[in-house]
Protein backbone atom coordinates (compact mmCIF):
# COMPACT_ATOMS: atom_id res chain seq x y z
CA UNK A 1 0.00 0.00 0.00
CA UNK A 2 1.43 3.35 -1.03
CA UNK A 3 1.02 6.27 1.31
CA UNK A 4 0.45 9.54 -0.49
CA UNK A 5 2.20 12.54 0.98
CA UNK A 6 1.43 16.26 1.16
CA UNK A 7 3.16 16.90 -2.14
CA UNK A 8 0.92 14.41 -3.99
CA UNK A 9 -2.23 15.87 -2.45
CA UNK A 10 -1.08 19.44 -3.10
CA UNK A 11 -0.30 18.69 -6.74
CA UNK A 12 -3.67 16.96 -7.13
CA UNK A 13 -5.46 20.00 -5.72
CA UNK A 14 -3.46 22.40 -7.90
CA UNK A 15 -4.04 20.26 -11.01
CA UNK A 16 -7.79 19.96 -10.40
CA UNK A 17 -8.22 23.65 -9.65
CA UNK A 18 -6.05 25.01 -12.44
CA UNK A 19 -7.26 22.43 -14.94
CA UNK A 20 -10.90 23.01 -14.06
CA UNK A 21 -10.63 26.77 -14.49
CA UNK A 22 -8.83 26.31 -17.83
CA UNK A 23 -11.46 23.86 -19.08
CA UNK A 24 -14.27 26.31 -18.23
CA UNK A 25 -12.33 29.20 -19.79
CA UNK A 26 -11.75 27.25 -23.01
CA UNK A 27 -15.35 25.98 -23.14
CA UNK A 28 -16.50 29.61 -23.21
CA UNK A 29 -14.53 30.05 -26.42
CA UNK A 30 -15.29 26.73 -28.08
CA UNK A 31 -18.91 26.14 -27.10
CA UNK A 32 -20.26 29.39 -25.67
CA UNK A 33 -20.74 27.72 -22.27
CA UNK A 34 -20.59 29.61 -18.97
CA UNK A 35 -21.55 32.93 -20.54
CA UNK A 36 -18.99 32.69 -23.33
CA UNK A 37 -19.46 33.76 -26.94
CA UNK A 38 -18.53 30.54 -28.73
CA UNK A 39 -16.22 30.38 -31.73
CA UNK A 40 -18.00 33.06 -33.77
CA UNK A 41 -18.09 35.72 -31.07
CA UNK A 42 -14.66 34.85 -29.70
CA UNK A 43 -13.28 34.81 -33.23
CA UNK A 44 -14.58 38.34 -33.82
CA UNK A 45 -13.04 39.46 -30.53
CA UNK A 46 -9.71 37.80 -31.36
CA UNK A 47 -9.66 39.57 -34.73
CA UNK A 48 -10.41 42.91 -33.04
CA UNK A 49 -7.41 42.56 -30.71
CA UNK A 50 -5.01 41.58 -33.48
CA UNK A 51 -5.12 37.78 -33.60
CA UNK A 52 -5.82 36.83 -37.21
CA UNK A 53 -7.56 34.92 -38.50
CA UNK A 54 -9.90 35.35 -35.57
CA UNK A 55 -11.85 32.10 -35.71
CA UNK A 56 -8.70 29.99 -36.10
CA UNK A 57 -7.11 31.89 -33.21
CA UNK A 58 -10.20 31.31 -31.06
CA UNK A 59 -10.13 27.61 -31.92
CA UNK A 60 -6.43 27.28 -31.08
CA UNK A 61 -6.81 29.15 -27.78
CA UNK A 62 -9.95 27.21 -26.85
CA UNK A 63 -8.31 23.85 -27.60
CA UNK A 64 -5.14 24.76 -25.69
CA UNK A 65 -7.20 25.82 -22.67
CA UNK A 66 -9.79 23.04 -22.73
CA UNK A 67 -7.43 20.27 -23.81
CA UNK A 68 -4.54 21.45 -21.65
CA UNK A 69 -6.84 21.95 -18.68
CA UNK A 70 -8.42 18.51 -19.05
CA UNK A 71 -5.03 16.82 -19.29
CA UNK A 72 -3.68 18.82 -16.33
CA UNK A 73 -6.66 17.86 -14.19
CA UNK A 74 -6.15 14.20 -15.08
CA UNK A 75 -2.39 14.42 -14.67
CA UNK A 76 -1.84 13.05 -18.17
CA UNK A 77 0.87 14.26 -20.57
CA UNK A 78 1.60 16.91 -17.96
CA UNK A 79 4.55 18.61 -19.72
CA UNK A 80 2.60 19.14 -22.95
CA UNK A 81 -0.63 20.03 -21.14
CA UNK A 82 1.01 22.63 -18.92
CA UNK A 83 2.99 24.12 -21.80
CA UNK A 84 -0.09 24.41 -24.05
CA UNK A 85 -2.12 26.12 -21.34
CA UNK A 86 0.78 28.43 -20.44
CA UNK A 87 1.15 29.43 -24.09
CA UNK A 88 -2.52 30.28 -24.39
CA UNK A 89 -2.35 32.37 -21.23
CA UNK A 90 0.73 34.21 -22.53
CA UNK A 91 -1.34 35.16 -25.58
CA UNK A 92 -4.13 36.41 -23.34
CA UNK A 93 -1.67 38.35 -21.17
CA UNK A 94 -0.41 40.18 -24.27
CA UNK A 95 -3.93 41.51 -24.90
CA UNK A 96 -4.35 42.71 -21.31
CA UNK A 97 -0.81 44.08 -20.80
CA UNK A 98 -1.67 47.70 -21.78
CA UNK A 99 -4.16 47.78 -18.87
CA UNK A 100 -1.48 47.07 -16.26
CA UNK A 101 -1.20 44.13 -13.91
CA UNK A 102 -4.41 43.99 -11.87
CA UNK A 103 -7.47 42.22 -13.28
CA UNK A 104 -9.87 44.76 -11.79
CA UNK A 105 -8.38 47.28 -14.23
CA UNK A 106 -8.50 44.81 -17.13
CA UNK A 107 -4.88 43.79 -16.60
CA UNK A 108 -3.05 40.52 -17.11
CA UNK A 109 -3.08 39.25 -13.49
CA UNK A 110 -5.58 36.42 -14.17
CA UNK A 111 -3.87 35.17 -17.33
CA UNK A 112 -0.44 35.35 -15.69
CA UNK A 113 -1.61 33.38 -12.66
CA UNK A 114 -3.15 30.59 -14.74
CA UNK A 115 -0.14 30.50 -17.06
CA UNK A 116 2.37 30.32 -14.23
CA UNK A 117 0.39 27.60 -12.46
CA UNK A 118 0.22 25.56 -15.68
CA UNK A 119 3.94 26.02 -16.39
CA UNK A 120 4.77 25.14 -12.79
CA UNK A 121 2.80 21.91 -13.07
CA UNK A 122 4.57 21.08 -16.35
CA UNK A 123 7.90 21.42 -14.53
CA UNK A 124 6.99 19.88 -11.17
CA UNK A 125 5.07 16.97 -12.65
CA UNK A 126 1.66 15.62 -11.69
CA UNK A 127 2.48 13.67 -8.52
CA UNK A 128 1.53 10.10 -7.76
CA UNK A 129 -2.24 10.71 -7.86
CA UNK A 130 -2.27 11.02 -11.64
CA UNK A 131 -2.75 9.11 -14.86
CA UNK A 132 0.87 9.83 -15.76
CA UNK A 133 1.99 7.95 -12.64
CA UNK A 134 -0.50 5.14 -13.23
CA UNK A 135 0.77 4.69 -16.80
CA UNK A 136 4.43 4.62 -15.83
CA UNK A 137 5.02 8.20 -17.02
CA UNK A 138 4.88 7.24 -20.69
CA UNK A 139 3.84 10.83 -21.56
CA UNK A 140 5.78 12.49 -18.74
CA UNK A 141 9.47 11.94 -19.34
CA UNK A 142 12.09 14.39 -18.10
CA UNK A 143 13.19 15.36 -21.60
CA UNK A 144 9.59 16.25 -22.52
CA UNK A 145 9.51 19.23 -20.13
CA UNK A 146 12.09 21.44 -21.89
CA UNK A 147 10.90 20.30 -25.33
CA UNK A 148 7.24 21.11 -24.60
CA UNK A 149 8.04 24.44 -22.97
CA UNK A 150 10.58 25.36 -25.68
CA UNK A 151 8.29 24.56 -28.61
CA UNK A 152 5.40 26.37 -26.95
CA UNK A 153 7.56 29.40 -26.14
CA UNK A 154 8.75 29.62 -29.75
CA UNK A 155 5.24 29.27 -31.20
CA UNK A 156 3.84 31.76 -28.69
CA UNK A 157 6.58 34.27 -29.52
CA UNK A 158 5.75 34.03 -33.23
CA UNK A 159 1.98 34.35 -32.72
CA UNK A 160 2.15 37.15 -30.14
CA UNK A 161 4.83 38.95 -32.16
CA UNK A 162 2.65 38.88 -35.29
CA UNK A 163 -0.30 40.09 -33.23
CA UNK A 164 1.74 42.94 -31.76
CA UNK A 165 2.87 44.01 -35.26
CA UNK A 166 -0.75 44.07 -36.47
CA UNK A 167 -1.82 46.13 -33.45
CA UNK A 168 1.10 48.53 -33.91
CA UNK A 169 0.32 48.95 -37.63
CA UNK A 170 -3.32 49.61 -36.86
CA UNK A 171 -2.55 52.30 -34.27
CA UNK A 172 0.38 53.90 -36.09
CA UNK A 173 -0.84 53.42 -39.64
CA UNK A 174 1.21 52.24 -42.58
CA UNK A 175 4.74 53.57 -42.83
CA UNK A 176 5.48 55.81 -45.79
CA UNK A 177 7.92 54.67 -48.43
CA UNK A 178 11.20 56.53 -47.84
CA UNK A 179 12.82 55.91 -51.22
CA UNK A 180 11.26 55.29 -54.60
CA UNK A 181 12.73 52.65 -56.90
How does this structure look, described?
The chain is mostly helical and 181 residues long. The chain is built from seven helices and no strands. The longest helix is centred in the last third of the chain and has 29 residues, at 144-172. The radius of gyration is 18 Å and the shape is elongated. The termini are far apart. The mean pLDDT is 94.
Reconstruct the topology from this structure.
Layout lengths: L5 H26 L6 H11 L5 H21 L3 H19 L12 H16 L6 H4 L9 H29 L9
Span between N and C termini?
A: 79 Å
Rg, nearest Å: 18 Å
Q: What coarse outline follows from CA principal-axis ratios? A: elongated
Q: What is the H/E order?
A: HHHHHHH
Spans where pLDDT lies below 50 across 5 or more residues = none
Strand percentage lies at under 5%
Number of strands: 0
Counted by DSSP, the helix tally is 7
Kindly state the percentage of residues in helix: 55-70%
Structural class: mainly alpha
Amino acid sequence: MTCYDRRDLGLLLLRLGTGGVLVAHGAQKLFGWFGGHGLEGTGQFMESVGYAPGKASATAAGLAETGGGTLLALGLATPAAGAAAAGAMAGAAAVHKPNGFFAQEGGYEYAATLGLAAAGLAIAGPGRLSLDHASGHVFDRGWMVPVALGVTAAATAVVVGARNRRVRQKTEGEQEVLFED
